[in-house]
Write a structure and sequence with these properties.
The protein contains 17 helices and ten strands. It has 368 residues and is of the alpha/beta class. Helix 2 links the parallel strand 1 (20-22) and strand 2 (37-39). One of its GO terms (biological process) is tRNA wobble uridine modification.
């Protein structure tokens, strides 16, 4: 078998979604990692702290000595077993630590002594992260974008998913971008969101996309924020407006926030707890916008959604959610959308319903 060499070709790593073996401590991995990375650490969090302290107080040689003391034969065998399983499953991958230095080379040495060859990434996590930050900044400034605008429930995300040259920002952020947009699965860290966004843009640039379509968003999607360079480019981008009749908007909103959510709650909490947890989610989100709604509207909506959840629990029907959804769209989201769009300004290239917008976008992308 040909020996694969260490690499610093970060672009190829991310373009090809190559498997990445992250040997940093778990606490480092949680703060920031890459979509195709798996954490099998050389040192656990406690060991990393002890060695870091020794390094600061007595230098590198003393830190290495302590590392080998902590890495007992039993621990080494545990690490080698886990790494070997990963390598056999992902033979085309690479390993890395924080700077591509001591930890990754020690891990590589132990792997090599076990009879396997696994190359490392020069510069490690720090260099790859720097590469993605720089690429995100450069592509944001050079890549033409078009924002898809539309009222809440108009199906902008459905349009984004249908277009090949598009970035699903809400998908990357794991949040629907509204007051009710929080998902059961946690949002990524800010760093992980930025990494995923940068990789998505790198892939679209490599595909020589004439323009990248993105959903019109505010600076925040849940608790993650759009990077500054991307946000500035996004604000300058021309728009296309998705126009969707109210009845379809109600159907889309019902599917997004109720019909498709209930199975996820059952899987997460079990049959007995799914409805109580869903009730807590819906009414809790409603409480967070109480001030903007005003007391009377909040009280009315609270009653509508409480009754709808009761009916869902009793019969399994979701139809009782429609009046509350329609009221929210008309009296909360639409006025907010009109205000934001009046402030936004900018060129509008096209207006139309879903199929018309998709057809226009595809013609525009192909240069017809």
């Amino acid at each position: 078998m040909t020996k694969r060499l260490d690499t610093d070709d970060y672009r190829t790593l991310f373009l090809n979604d190559l498997p990445l073996l992250d040997v940093r401590a778990p606490v480092e991995f949680v703060k920031g990692a890459f979509p195709c990375s798996t954490n099998i650490p050389l040192l656990d969090d406690d060991q990393r702290t002890k060695i870091g302290t020794r390094y600061k107080e007595q230098g590198q040689d003393a830190a290495i000595e302590l590392g080998w003391q902590l890495a007992t034969p039993e621990i080494q065998q545990q690490r080698i077993k886990a790494w070997s399983a990963y390598i056999n499953q992902h033979p085309n991958g690479y390993l890395y630590c924080f700077r591509g230095g001591l930890r990754s080379r020690l891990s590589q040495q132990l792997i090599r002594e076990s009879g396997l060859n696994y190359p490392l990434i020069k510069g490690g996590y720090k260099a790859m992260r720097r590469f993605l930050i720089d690429e995100l900044d450069a592509i944001s400034r050079s890549q033409p974008m078009i924002a898809i605008s539309g009222r809440t429930g108009s199906g902008k995300t459905l349009a984004i998913k249908q277009l090949q040259q598009a970035v699903d920002l809400e998908g990357l952020a794991n949040h629907r971008g509204s007051a009710f947009g929080r998902q059961l699965q946690e949002q990524p860290s800010q760093i992980n969101f930025e990494n995923a966004l940068s990789i998505a843009l790198i892939k679209l640039q490599a595909a020589q996309s004439k323009v990248v379509f993105v959903e019109d968003e505010g600076p925040l999607i849940g608790r993650v924020s759009l990077p500054q360079a991307f946000l500035e480019a996004f604000k300058r981008a021309p728009r296309i407006l998705l126009e969707t009749p109210m009845d379809k908007r109600i159907n889309i909103t019902l599917a997004d926030y109720v019909t498709e959510a209930i199975p996820a709650y059952r899987n997460a909490y079990g049959e007995a707890e799914s409805i109580p947890k869903f009730r807590e989610h819906v009414l809790g989100n409603l409480a967070r916008i109480r001030k903007r709604l005003g007391g009377d509207r909040h009280s009315h909506l609270h009653g509508l959604f409480s009754s709808a959840i009761d009916e869902l629990d009793h019969s399994g029907s979701t139809d009782a959610f429609r009046p509350g959804i329609e009221m929210l769209l008309k009296e909360y989201y639409d006025p907010m959308y009109d205000y934001q769009q009046a402030k936004r300004g900018g060129q509008v290239l096209f207006k139309g319903e879903h199929d018309e917008l998709i057809a226009w976008a595809q013609r525009y992308q192909s240069g017809i």
